């Protein structure tokens, strides 16, 4: 099986699987246990085929030839797909407050 692997330089990572944060965060964030029903929305879970297989797409394009433009259009039409790319990971890091020497712009 393939698993997504993220690699960061000069970062220490600590997992907290407890019901509460271990220290105050510099931003407002509730844990899963603290989420209120009106604040969340559930996505319909896509079940695997009877053989236990899922569909995976690997779009291939030439650099600077509109690959991300196509992907943006595809994701609008097919919101149940999830993008795993350097662009989506950098977006997640920026929203999580991770600093980056070169910035995110």
What does this molecule look like?
With 105 residues, the protein is mainly alpha-helical. Helices cover 21% and strands 0% of the residues. The protein contains two helices and no strands. The chain has helices spanning 67-77, 86-96. The radius of gyration is 18 Å and the shape is extended. The two termini are 34 Å apart. The mean pLDDT is 75.
Task: List low-pLDDT spans.
Answer: none
H/E series:
HH
Backbone shape: extended
> Structural class per helix/strand content?
mainly alpha
Count of alpha and pi helical runs:
2
In terms of topology, how is this protein built?
Blueprint: H1 67-77, H2 86-96
Tell me briefly what this model is:
With 105 residues, the protein is mainly α.
